[in-house]
Design a protein that fits this description.
mainly alpha, globular, disordered N terminus
Length: 243
């Protein structure tokens, strides 16, 4: 039985290699064209990356859904929320000036972080980490007079993200298996991505700082999604393979 399963794993790994290669090409291509092409063109190509990520996520989900634990499917749903989040934060701003796009995008990513919080498990320690970041980020936003409805939702999102990242590493330190490491590293990249956006907002008057932060956003975001997809694959199969 084990040899049969190993054969299946080899076939599956080929799809994973194809996925990794395609997204790596996107990564290099996007980071180069960001320097030369218009935001509209780059935005469309960035959303193509999100669509490809969703397609492969669905493929991996269909392969593992019968044997996957419900907890793993929560992570898949969370990753899938990037389709909606980036629809409002990347695609729509590239083609129109709809005033509510950022608000809707922040809501979508906050739902994503809530799903991840459910995936890793809520606890008193999680609540303390969330509260600490929420207070500090709120203080910074008030200090720079950046209070808006969209930014308040973004504060909740950033606080959840920070709590998810820290909790991810706590989980990994308790159980050092591959899926936990991929998850924690993916959330760290996600953290760096979203906090780069926050730096853009706070230091928008300082062009050099703003431009560096802008370049870092997708430098961290693309690896974050790929790492979380691979963590999902390992999580979905964890009842069959013990790392």
């Amino acid at each position: 039985m084990y040899s049969i399963y190993r054969e299946g794993a080899v076939l599956e790994s080929k799809k994973q290699v194809i996925y990794l290669c395609i997204q790596s090409v996107f990564f290099i291509f996007i980071k180069i064209i960001e320097l030369f092409l218009s935001d509209r063109t780059v935005g469309l190509i960035k959303y193509a990356f999100i669509l490809v990520n969703l397609i492969f996520l669905l493929m991996f989900y269909l392969q593992t859904r019968k044997n996957a634990e419900q907890k793993a499917n929560i992570l898949a749903l969370a990753i899938g929320m990037t389709f909606f989040g980036d629809l409002f934060l990347v695609l729509i701003p590239s083609v129109s000036n709809w005033p509510y796009s950022f608000l809707c995008g922040y809501i979508a990513f906050t739902i994503l972080e809530l799903l991840i919080a459910v995936y890793i498990g809520l606890s008193k320690k999680y609540a303390l980490i969330f509260s600490a970041f929420f207070i500090v980020i709120n203080a910074v936003v008030w200090r720079f007079k950046l209070i808006t409805t969209a930014n308040e939702i973004a504060i909740i999102n950033l606080s959840l993200l920070a709590a998810n990242m820290v909790t991810g590493w706590i989980v990994y330190n308790k159980n050092k298996i591959l899926k936990n490491f991929l998850f924690a590293l993916g959330m760290t990249c996600f953290f760096c991505c979203d906090y780069s956006i926050a730096v853009q907002l706070v230091f928008k008057e300082f062009k050099t700082v703003h431009d560096i932060a802008d370049y870092l956003v997708w430098l961290f975001y693309m690896p974050a999604l790929v790492l979380l997809v691979f963590s999902y694959i390992k999580s979905a199969k964890s009842d069959k393979i013990k790392e």
